[in-house]
Structure formats: structure tokens, C-alpha cells
Amino acid sequence: MFAVESYAAVRRFVFVEGHSRRQAAIVFGLNRETVAKMCRFSLPPGYTRTKPVAKPKLGALIPVIDANLEADKAAPMKQRHTAKRIFERLRDEHDFAGGYTVVKDYVRICRAQGRETFVPLAHPPGHAQVDFGEAVAMIGGVRQKVHYFCMDLPQSDAPFVKAYLRETTEAFLDGHVSAFAFFGGMPLSILYDNTTIAVAKICGDGKRERTRAFTELCSHYLFQDRFGRPGKGNDKGKVEGLVKFSRANFMVPIPHAASFDALNARFEEQCRARQNDHAARHTDTIGERLGSDTAMLRPLPAVPLEPCEKRTARVSSTALVRYRTNDYSVPTAYGFRDVVVKGFVDEVVILCGSEEIARHARCYAEGAFVADPLHYLALIEMKPGALDQAAALQGWALPEVFQHLRHLLEARLGNRGRREFIQVLRLLETMPLAIVAEAVRDAIKLGAVAFDAVKLIALAIEQRPARLDLTAYPHLPKMDVKTTCAADYAVLAA
Hints:
Blueprint: H1 4-16, H2 21-28, H3 32-40, H4 62-72, H5 83-94, H6 100-114, E1 127-139, E2 142-153, E3 158-164, H7 169-183, E4 189-192, E5 199-202, E6 208-210, H8 212-221, E7 224-227, H9 237-249, E8 256-257, H10 260-274, H11 286-296, E9 309-314, E10 320-323, E11 326-329, E12 338-343, E13 347-352, E14 355-361, E15 369-370, H12 377-382, H13 400-413, H14 415-426, H15 433-446, H16 451-462, H17 490-493
Parallel strand pairs: 1-4, 1-8, 4-7, 11-15
Antiparallel strand pairs: 1-2, 2-3, 5-6, 9-12, 10-11, 12-13, 13-14
Helix pairs in contact: 2-3, 5-6, 13-14, 15-16
């Protein structure tokens, strides 16, 4: 095939300089048919096949290849035939003697015919897309998988990314609350895939049955929820692109952070820095185009949604509440009561009625026992023999001075000394550890080794007036004081 420059030279020689085509053939060393073609076309027309290329080496094996490609449609994406694997099977199972290239070319043509084409989409301002991604990070020196929440505003390509240990309901909710605060408003609508966190069931008519947690989120913030087609990630291609961009740019090399809070602070900085970049073919920066999005965002409600999963439970006989395979303690006074468990990303809160009765750091292990020693001290005071074997007290890191106090009390008072030591521990229910520890040290120095002495010293340190606990003196008579009314004063008037 001749270059465009050759066509231009021959055509100029004939049409501009006025020479004949025979002269052009002689001067340029071409045959007259080639010169005639150059005069007909201003550019090389190229070679056009009049019929498909015959593949005699494949021959009867073409149906075998077609059958393999058809079977791949029902197989998982990562377990489908490659062109090389088809070639190997033809060679080993059908004695194919041809080369790999002819097989590869045929497979490429077949797959190109079945590929989906897409309609370019327009993205009006004020709308969002949400998805989760997975990556690896070093958190607190431990290499672990992280799940990161992504919200993208497609019109401006403004991103928000936040990492979590698990892709859970509470992480899903917290991601929304954090993203709304980051953008300073609520999108008009949000597009999702069919995650089970939001969709409990896909009905036959294409409608979705929402989960309770997702319904509460929509009800609180009043945005319109939209869902893509099952298995069609391109329906929310913008946030899919953000998931890939974040992994390639925010997490390469593998990020190191002391905690998730530190990692997410870094992600927030990177999201803000991203607003200075240009996306796609836009001449304006992401931050400049973000103004159109923020102008359409709805204002946030006065009180943000509590980003937690709520479950009902019943306290066991050992004052434990089970939440996601783990047992969390509550004060023993609430045994056998019905409670509500709020599972946040980083903590678990337990309520009885409207009263908060326990708060623990969230545990993501399985079958773990998470206990606060203070929850069991009231019961241990009634059963002092359980002091050394109580599971909740094992590994309780108290200052050494507490153990010294126990030895002194038990040496002087025996079993009663153990009970008084438990009463000293119960001061921690209402006082900071540092104050109680200082009070114990002062009591030992003064030789006042007793619960009452430690309590009075602690109150003095805290500068809190002493208050008599009548429950410790059941033998005292109780007074019944009635509420007065206006009629009671009529006697005085008479």
C-alpha cells in the first residue's frame, strides 16, 4: 500500500502540472492501473474483503469453539475460557494441528460480536452514586483488609471516601452521614447496586423491598433512592470509577496508619485535594464544577441520623447481651430484662427502656466475651467468694496499691476484709480510677485501712460532700414524707 504522500505527488503531477497518466507511470515507476486508482481516490482506499476469510485449519472445530463460548455465559466470570485455554483443549482433545493465532483471532471476533454497547449518559447536578470497595491497609501495624465507602457526585466527579473494618449496616449508615456532612447537604437522589444492606428482596416487577435500616435512612434524609440493574455495574459507572481510582491513587502504596480515624483523615484530605484536578475532558476543575452540585443539595436536618444497627435482646442470667456472636456485659441488676442494642462502627451501646446501661468498644471477633468489671461488683459484694474466679475481673489492670490494700484488709479482718475491699472497688462506679487509687495510697500511709476511710479521703480529694447511703443501713427506720397541698394550710388559718 502506497503512502498518502505518493498519492499527493501523483495527483499533483497529473492534475496540476498537466502531465498524462502514462507519463506519471514512467516518472514514478508505477503501472498505469495504480496511477488510475490514485487519480480516482485522494487517499489510499485500502483493501476491502469481498467475502469472509476462510479458516481451513479450524474447519469442523469451529462448532466446538462456539460451544465452549456459549457454555461460558453460565460460568463465573473468573472461570471462563481464555483463547489460550480453548487452543490447548483443541490441541489435546481434538488433535488440532494449527497455530494459536488463528484460534485467538476467531475467539476475539466472536466475543466482539456479543459485547454490550452503552448509551452516553448525562448527569444533572445534585445527584449521587454509592458503592463499597475493598483494599489492603496497615492499621496499627497490622496488615488487614479494609472496606471503603465511596460517594460520587457524577456531575462534578467530586469524591468522598471513608474506610471501615467491615462492610456492615452501621458502616453503610455512617458513610452516608459522613458524606452528607462532607458535601454540606443531601443529594436529591442516590443510585445503588442491589446490596443486601439496602435491599431485602427484589420483587418480580422490578421493585425493591427495602431493609428497615435503609428505610430509616431514607425517611430521615428524604432523598430518592434508585437502584441499578442486577449484575450491571455500568449503571453506576461513575462511582465504580471512583472505587478503582481510590484504590489506585489513595491506596498505592499500601497505606500505613495508626488507626482508622487517622486513615480516614488522610482520605478526606485526598478527596479535597482531588477537587483541584480536572476529570475527563472538562476544562473546569472538579471543585469549580462542584458548585453546581452543592447549589442543588438539600439542607441537612438539625439532628443527624444515629448511624447504628438496632436489635432487641434479652439479658442472660450472667448479665450478658449477645450481639453479632459476641457477648457484652451489663450491670447485674438488669438480668433477664429486655434491652435494645445499638451497634455502631466503633462501639456497642445497650439501653433498657430509654436508659443507657452499658457502653463497650465494638469487637469484630467471633465468640468474644466483652465485659466491664464494674458491672459485676454489686453482685460480687453479695458473693465475695467469687472475687478471684469472676471472669469479668480477670486481667483487670488495677494499680498495685489495690492488691496491697486487699492483703492488709484480709490480714486484719478476714472474710469481712474481702467484702470491704470489694466496697473499695465499687467506688470506681462513681469515681475516676486516679482519685480512688490516690485515696487508697493515703489511707495506707495514715494506717486507716478501711472502706469508710478510703471513701472519705476520696471524697475530700474530689471535693465532693459525703452522702449517706441508707441501703448500707437497712436496720434504720424509714420516713414516709408526704407532699403537701393547699388544703393542709387551712388548719393554720383556723
